[in-house]
Amino acid sequence: ASRAKSTFMANISHELRTPLTSIIGFGNLIMGNQKIPETVKAQSRIVVEQGKNLLNLINDILELADTERSTSPQGLNKVIIANSIKTVLKREKEHADKKNIALSYGMEPDLPKVIVADELKITKILGMLVNNAIKFTDPGGSVKVFVSRKEMMLLFEVNDTGIGIDEKDTHAIFERFHQLDDSSTRKYEGAGMGLTLARLMIKGMGGSIWLKSSLGEGSSFYFSLPMQEELTLGG
């Protein structure tokens, strides 16, 4: 039943994505037309922004379905850890700058510089965690990524100075479509799928994810990945 559901989700996502891409494209054409009144352009801008939000949701659903169907690791290659982190922070810099949020990263000394892993999944997971951290951090705050070693595991931490999460919600937040504020007037947008997707991808790579947080005191998301000696390339 779970596999059938995932297949259905994947198929319907493909069918929704095609017309939605056309809507966004025509909205962009309207905004770029000098003869169109500014009031119409402003309305078109809303259509494009909401269309992109919906397209991101559909992409997340499709990726969630693919992740649930996949049972074996894919895309293993040499990963330079620092470069993966820099890539994520570069992508999120504009988002952070708009809120005057400082982005930084650090690494424990003597960590291997290169490992064998699924780089696309690592950057996807880090990207979701950093994006969430920025979203839930007030202007003037900070978000930091730190990597360390815990026995034979590589430990990633994404720390923020944001609004924090009640301790009783720290487990439920990884459930699909779960949102701490599910009211129609909620302040923060999102479908509550990113952390579910991250948990499934990390589990598929043999790791785990957890959260330490308190209301009003920021959050620290941790995820671990196996770091077997035979998979360590270079130092």
Write a structural description:
This protein is α+β, with helices and mostly antiparallel strands and 235 residues long. Helices cover 46% and strands 20% of the residues. The chain is built from five helices and seven strands. It has helices at 2-32, 38-69, 81-98, 119-135, 194-204, and strands at residues 76-80, 102-107, 114-118, 142-150, 153-160, 208-213, 219-226. The strands form two sheets. A five-stranded mixed beta sheet has the order 2-4-5-7-6, with helices on one face. Strand 6 (208-213) and strand 7 (219-226) form a beta hairpin. Helix 3 (81-98) packs parallel to helix 4 (119-135). The longest helix has 32 residues, at 38-69. The protein is globular and about 60 Å long. Mean pLDDT is 81; it is low at 180-186 and 229-235.
